[in-house]
């Protein structure tokens, strides 16, 4: 984030979409004009426990109290780290999360995790959010604080004048919601049940796959739109995933010229109809990688597939693993003798920053794309 | 509890020993000791038997009152094989000098391997994502390898009391207690209270 242009805050009539992705994690910051900011998910800034969103806002001189909307699209730890810190700092914000997290089983999981006192970011962040909600008035708090539980078809926020915008939730569908409730219930059972005492041993809570909780968003900016895919994956059930969105007769009309590609660009999140029916030709695509040891998304074939849909594709960080050089040769040798693979947890922070004047109406061509930190063009992701 | 002079119930009952070979037969078993306390499978007795003239695994009982090379006098019943009482083990004096230590969390378990996230316990190196073969985990810990399980991985030198040094990798799973019904009920009650207080419903 060096240089004067990168530290310039957007003008009042300037829309900004900033996508952060350190290689494990994702955060999106939106400036919707006149100092209205929204934070969607959270990940840490480079070499810091501070959320990337707060770190960036501080670097461009924006008060975190300008964040008016905070959304946790789901509770996986790569999307949630630091979201409670953002909520704490953003005193004028409203907290949104998936309606799937309204379930009794989810709050049971949060409390169980708290009692376990292990570092489980997914539930710990929600526990902190609940504490902040309590401090802001508990049951008597204003409705403007949230939480608001989001389901497909909901308009989460809107402004008519000046610089009109609407933020629509495209998921979870009602079928996804049922599956998500079952998923969370099953997660609770896996955490506390087991055939043997050893299997019932206390352990960290691990979210299950596939993810039916995630909230995909449609941001309408005048006559333009942006599609933010979260981690929503496609599934064999046409009442869930991207198929139900493509089939929907009530989703907002129009085509988006920016797409934050879902689920790190994986094959499981790809639905060709999204490209054909919901996006403009040569729309801008942004990907955040997911690097967890040998599991690396997007793969080279994912990159080829995305580039066949648009040439204007970017990634917040190259899909590269790095090995620590251990000063002690005995440690190095023993590690090599013991593990099948070992890589550093990804730490680089890249930012894809898109800015344009709200009045611009020239589609994707009008977005000014800046690649900051480790961000690069997608075709270089595996180079 | 079985007293020293009791008749043995099965042939296998007689073959227990200390893994400390040097200490075998050195002295009488303390009067307070029991067979249960010293019961370990015999590994070396057969090898040592000629030296000590023990009729191991045979029906050739020595004469009652026979004196052995180590001065031990056996009190035997007529048909019983000899009783051999090993010396209890002194505590092992192995010393482990850690060079690197991590706390790990299991992310995923496959048939022969499990993937983990490792955090340096001294916070001197970056977090790691590592995949281990299941065979690196001791058999007793294998059942604890579940997503979410917490373990420690230490690399260092293990040194025994003779000064022998061995490069070692030790994986030890945390044995947290199992959830009790009461704990789960308490957590659910707290969660219900929290939902009510926050209107999270």
> The CATH topology of the domain at 95-173 in chain B, please?
OB fold (Dihydrolipoamide Acetyltransferase, E2P)
Show unreliable segments of chain B.
1-61
Name the structural class of chain B.
alpha+beta
Approximate helicity band of chain A:
25-40%
Describe this structure in words.
The complex is a heterodimer of chains A (383) and B (201). With 383 residues, chain A is an alpha/beta fold. Chain A is built from 10 helices and 19 strands. Chain A has helices spanning 52-59, 77-80, 83-89, 104-116, 121-135, 174-192, 241-247, 272-278, 300-309, 329-338; strands spanning 14-21, 27-31, 37-40, 67-72, 94-98, 148-150, 155-159, 165-169, 217-221, 224-228, 256-260, 279-287, 290-292, 295-297, 313-315, 341-344, 350-357, 368-373, 376-377. In chain A, the strands form 3 sheets. Chain A has an 8-stranded mixed β-sheet with strand order 6-5-4-3-2-1-17-18, covered by helices on one side. An 8-stranded mixed β-sheet of chain A has the order 7-8-9-10-11-12-15-19. In chain A, strand 9 and strand 10 (224-228) form a beta hairpin. In chain A, helix 3 runs parallel beside helix 5 (121-135), helix 4 (104-116) crosses helix 5 (121-135) and helix 4 (104-116) packs parallel to helix 6 (174-192). With 201 residues, chain B is an alpha+beta fold. Chain B has a domain at 95-173: OB fold (Dihydrolipoamide Acetyltransferase, E2P). Chain B is 15% helix and 24% strand. A 5-stranded antiparallel β-sheet of chain B has the order 3-2-1-4-5, with no helix packed on it. The radius of gyration of chain B is 26 Å and the shape is extended. The termini of chain B are far apart. Residues 1-61 of chain B have low confidence and may be disordered. Classes of the chains: A alpha/beta (383), B alpha+beta (201). At the A-B interface, helix 4, helix 5, helix 10 and strand 16 of A face strand 1, strand 2, strand 3, strand 4 and strand 5 of B.
